[in-house]
Amino acid sequence: MNTTKLEYLLRMGDNCLVLSQQLAAWCGHGPALEEDLALTNVALDLLGQARMWLTLAGEEEGKGRDEDALAYFRDGSEFRNLLIVEQPNGHYGNTVARQFLFDAWHMHVLAGLSTSSDARIAEIAQKSVKEVRYHFERSAGLMIALGRGTPESHARMQAAVELLWPYANEWFESDAVDEACASSGVAPAAPSLAAPWRARVEAVLDRATLKMPGYIGHQRGGKRGVHTEHLGHLLTDLQFVQRTYPGAQW
């Protein structure tokens, strides 16, 4: 078992799983029918990606845990997702801003993983990046539309960016797992994604007439299993059926 590769796979899978669960909570509650359907489709895309990453993680671990076991029977401290994806949905503008900041990073990291030295990782990334390019186009378009909308929508989007900005740097901080995966060609170096991410985000915020905060985010811990209280609430909903009725099937 390659423990560094396993950790990296869990990070990718957990990001997708947690954000998919967050977006699914909007099903039936979106501000318009078209938005409701579109956001649900993004959630399904991310769930599909989570399944691929976690299936591969289970194989790498070699302990007989499949995607379901990893999703439903790990405690919060065993999850490796970024803190930003577990932040509350809030109002729709908060959800859009969270999605946009994540999509911009997700697109770049998947592009790097598409040339991974690990053929299975490259295969998953090549499939996923096609979906995530659409995710980014959609969330960027909403940022621009809402930022340039009414004074109220502009103010709400500016506040949403500022609320989430403290969490928008964790993905560029490199630890032993990131460094090992980068040195072996498994994954791109985490800090190398910062400049292209910032340029892409700044370009969209400029078009949206929104200001980019002038500081670097400081919240971190998700990649090593230190989470906010919000993840516990989310996992309670996600894992309830399997924890209560192990092995239950629809």
UniProtKB/TrEMBL annotation:
Enzyme Commission number, as recorded? 1.14.13.149
Any matching Pfam family: PaaA_PaaC
SUPFAM superfamilies from the entry?
A: Ferritin-like
Enumerate the GO terms in the molecular function aspect. phenylacetyl-CoA 1,2-epoxidase activity
What is the name listed in the Swiss-Prot or TrEMBL entry for this protein?
1,2-phenylacetyl-CoA epoxidase subunit PaaC
Q: Which InterPro entries match?
A: Aromatic_CoA_ox/epox (IPR052703), Ferritin-like (IPR012347), Ferritin-like_SF (IPR009078), PaaA_PaaC (IPR007814), PaaC (IPR011882)
Q: What class of enzyme is it?
A: oxidoreductase
User: Could you tell me the keywords of this UniProt record?
Assistant: Oxidoreductase
